[in-house]
Design brief:
The protein is of the alpha+beta class. The chain has two domains: 2-30 and 237-279; 33-227, Glutaredoxin (3-Layer(aba) Sandwich), CATH 3.40.30. The protein has six helices and twelve strands. It starts with a helix and ends with a helix. The model is unreliable at 12-27 and 229-244 (pLDDT under 50).
Length: 280
């Protein structure tokens, strides 16, 4: 019985510690200036600007309309090759999710990845494409993934149209942005937003199916991750979150140690009483 009671109390302590951590994390922290205007504002059912000009990874001049021919749905992402972390995590997760879908890139759907860095070259984009086609594992699908680079004006026009807010941080020479993939109909209407760096098989499958039929879905959950490195000088939002997580972990360790120590002392006293009773 003592062991069962121990586990029950430990469970209570764990839940209590998590509640403390969660309650602290739900405090409203003022967003740093760097994150103002960054994020996603859903513009479902809008049609992406068809006449925006870009260059593909082979250096060819293209228009967005080239990828919306009415035949296949399109997965649209905004990333950039020199992103220090989030873009790679997002595209890794997207590829891993799409590998599990029975639909095949370049047969059933296309992907268009537009760099938000106006300085990115087609050559750099080509290297990134090569990396992700290799990860996808179907080299014959390469023509279906289009990596585009372009002018700041055209990148911004596309981002504004789909509600993708991002900023350039001069001090760190990196872009502040969110992780999201947009699913578009074959005619270029925005059907659904998928957020984060892990893409569930069912969500991808149904999003592609809906888009292929020209349907527009609704997003119930937004798990938006921001790409930005914080420190004491850059802003207080992330450090505050880190302190809360550390505090929650410390509370858990102290509480668990206290409970285990109490049960250990009680067990020692019980064994001592049992030994005394046997000798008396």
């Amino acid at each position: 019985m003592a062991n069962k009671s121990t586990f029950r109390i430990i469970g209570v302590v764990v839940l209590w510690s998590l509640m403390i951590t969660t309650a602290g994390a739900e405090r409203t922290e003022a967003l740093p200036e760097e994150l103002e205007g960054v994020g996603i504002v859903e513009h479902l059912d809008i049609q992406v600007p068809q006449k925006l000009a870009f260059k593909d990874s082979e250096g060819n001049d293209v228009l967005l309309s080239d990828y919306f021919t009415g035949e296949r749905p399109v997965v649209l992402t905004l990333n950039y090759s020199n992103c220090p972390m989030l873009c790679h995590l997002q595209l890794d997760g997207l590829v891993d999710g799409l590998k599990a879908v029975k639909w095949v890139l370049n047969e059933d759907y296309d992907i268009v990845t537009v760099s938000i860095d106006p300085l990115e070259t087609p050559q750099r984009a080509a290297l990134t494409k090569k990396k992700y086609i290799k990860r996808y594992g179907r080299p014959e699908s390469a023509p279906g993934w289009h990596f585009l680079v372009g002018s700041e004006a055209n990148i911004k026009a596309l981002a504004d149209a789909i509600g993708f807010g991002y900023k350039y941080n001069v001090e760190r020479d990196e872009y502040v942005h969110a992780a999201a993939a947009m699913i578009l109909t074959p005619n270029g209407h925005l059907s659904r937003y998928l957020y984060g760096i892990i893409y569930d098989l069912q969500n991808l499958k149904f999003a592609l199916l809906e888009a292929s039929e020209g349907k527009v879905g609704s997003t119930l959950d937004q798990v938006i991750m921001y790409c930005f490195h914080y420190d004491a000088e850059a802003g207080r939002y992330a450090p505050a979150a880190m302190r809360l997580m550390r505090l929650g972990g410390l509370v858990f360790v102290v509480a668990l140690g206290t409970v285990l120590s109490a049960f250990w002392r009680r067990d020692v006293r019980r064994k001592k009483r049992t030994a005394e009773q046997k000798t008396s």
